[in-house]
Amino acid sequence: MKLNLILISEIVLAFVAIMFVHELGHFIFAKKAGILVREFSLGLGPKLFTIKKGETYYSLRILPFGAYVKMAGEDPEINDFNPGQKVGVKTNSKGEVTDIYIDTTMEKEIKVDQIDLERELYIKGIDEKENIVTYPISSEAFLHHDGKKTQIAPWDRQFGSKSIIDRFMTIIAGPLFNILFTLIVIFSIAMMVGVPTDQIMITNIVEDSPAELAGLQEGDIILGVNDIIFDSSEDIVKMIQKSPGVEINLLIERDGKQLVKQITPKADENGIGKIGVGLSPVQKKATIIEAASSAVKQTTGLAVVTIESFRMLFTGNVGIDDIAGPVGIIEVTSAYAKKGLLTLMNWTAVLSLYIGIFNLIPIPALDGSRLLFLSIEALRGKPIDPQKESMVHLIGFAFLMLIMILVTINDVSKLFS
């Protein structure tokens, strides 16, 4: 039971880390651009707890598989008041309105005639003495409605008011932080366990295989073939594969000593020579530069594979049976978690990169589509109608949810089959 709880905790932590990093990218660049960030939430669903620091609420919600940053202007702001509507107001020593109460009677009340919470920041109306009054509104004033307290968002604090560059960076920062997270995790692994060298080591031996008959052992390092020392492990493997049925001399290193073993590779069904061993690169302790170089190289390779997998998906070369949804991803993550912390870290890095690149695809409701709309705005010189853009994102979100449901059903059916 204790082991299961640890395993579950590791899985949840892996997903939370990926989601946190993604939203942290949006959050940092939104703050940098001067956008009012109303909430930074880890998880979805009902709140477990929330604290407020500055003008932002930081929340932890019950479902760990998700996160979001709520920026002013993404949803319609409360700016419409009916003529003659009564509101309560509080003012500060400067005479500025700091609080507006929509559904609560206050000592100071106004029948609203005009109000602007975005640009000119004022409220004009008739007070309780039937006098026409006008008050300036503080740029940090609060609206009180239905028991909720919401800070107003003047136009210059809303997402839509910012330059295309600021909005572009705020959106793309999420996926980029996922990619950066992958680099950092792989770099950390390299510093912990070292980086691969060109030498290869035998990690396991198949029973009754040519390797076992030749006396090879786990931990042996293969240095060369037929008196030739190769600089690349790939060349050694190719030499073995090209020698089915032909005796070769393997130069190995065991306990610091060099030995020569005669072995005859066995041809598989495709005529390729096999000796029946599992191979893994020999690791060496890494310097910071070597670890960084290895991280960049591995992340680049993973990115190429990920992009190619998406290309195959959208060209119809991959079917829905080959796609893993939430259930499938959790199952895979669980399998990796059982193999140890380093394996889970490696998988978390891969998953973070996958999510980062996936979010850059211009599918409605994803970051990529918002970047596409911003690019179109830059070319047109004016923004696309927000209602039309919202409709596109809504349709895209519905489509993604449908795909997610189908994939989840497929995942569950695989579990029971």
Quick structural gist:
With 417 residues, this protein is of the alpha+beta class.
List its salient traits.
5-stranded mixed β-barrel; transmembrane helix; single chain; PDZ_sf; metalloprotease; 16 strands; about 45% helix; Pdz3 Domain; PDZ_6
Task: Please describe what this structure looks like.
- GO terms for molecular function: metal ion binding; metalloendopeptidase activity.
- Belongs to the peptidase M50B family.
- Its cofactor is Zn(2+).
- It is a multi-pass membrane protein.
- This is Zinc metalloprotease.
- This protein is α+β, with helices and mostly antiparallel strands.
- Among the domains are: 67 residues, no CATH class; 90 residues, PDZ domain (Pdz3 Domain, Roll), CATH 2.30.42.10; 129 residues, no CATH class.
- It is 43% helix and 29% strand.
- The chain has 9 helices and 16 strands.
- Strands 9, 10, 11, 12, 13 and 16 form a 6-stranded antiparallel β-sheet that branches.
- β12 and β13 form a beta hairpin.
- α2 packs antiparallel against α8.
